[in-house]
Write a structure and sequence with these properties.
Rossmann fold, 8 helices, 5-stranded parallel sheet, alpha/beta, Arc Repressor Mutant, subunit A, 4-stranded antiparallel sheet, globular
């Protein structure tokens, strides 16, 4: 899961991003309103962790921007303000959930997973696609009941394909989803080919079909018609 954390408290922001990274998330950080808008306009995120109080603006204004630009991300508001009005306004503007500070990081993780399930997996914690099975709670993948030994990037890549079936995903889009804004400094995205190749090989070795097709000149797609 790719997450944008919008939080101006340096210690809390570091704690959140470090914890979520250890849990297998791709995390990016914005510490103010200006940075947040730039990232939202330039990149796509599965979920956004949004603080309401920012040094140069209000998180609710960012929610308004997300709504007006039709940005399709799950949104979890975090705020020290335990106000019913803030919760109602945030939810009415499109937030999916609200978490009051202070909170435990495992609860934040659980809330993000729940948002992801509701938004992308119809509320389920598992994905079944023919012989492929993914348990998103423990990040376990099996093909024909054989557990695959996937790296975290390969797991995230397979999940990305399965939640974007029959859509062409460019190498740049895949790179940004798996590596975040680190890709801004890259000359090319040739490394994506190796990760796709390794994932396809592991699926086929478990007697699974090779559903991932190369779309020459564009990228890749998961073909459900095989």
């Amino acid at each position: 899961m790719k997450v944008l954390v919008i939080e101006d408290n340096e210690e809390l922001a570091q704690n959140i991003t470090s914890y979520l990274t250890r849990e297998g998330y791709i995390c990016e950080l914005a510490t103010n309103h200006f940075q947040a808008i730039n990232k939202l306009n330039g990149f796509k995120y599965d979920c956004i962790v949004l603080d309401i109080i920012l040094p140069d603006g209000n998180g609710l204004d960012i929610l308004g921007h997300i709504k007006s630009e039709k940005i399709d991300s799950g949104i979890l508001i975090i705020s020290a303000k335990n106000s019913l009005d803030d919760k109602v306004n945030g939810l009415e503007l499109g937030a999916d959930d609200y978490l009051t500070k202070p909170f435990h990081l495992p609860e934040l993780n659980a809330r993000l997973k729940a948002i992801y399930r509701r938004k992308y997996l119809q509320g389920a914690y598992e994905i079944r696609f023919n012989e492929i099975y993914i348990n998103t709670d423990n990040m376990e993948v099996s093909v024909n009941d054989s557990i695959l030994d996937l790296t975290r990037k390969e797991y995230a890549l397979l999940l990305y394909f399965l939640t974007n079936q029959n859509r062409v995903l460019t190498r740049q889009t895949i790179a940004e989803h798996l590596w975040g804004d680190y890709t801004d400094n890259l000359v090319n995205f040739d490394f994506v080919y190796q990760h796709v190749k390794n994932l396809r090989k592991k699926i086929v070795q478990a007697d699974g079909k090779d559903y991932i097709e190369t779309v020459y000149g564009l990228g890749y797609k998961l073909n459900t018609n095989k």
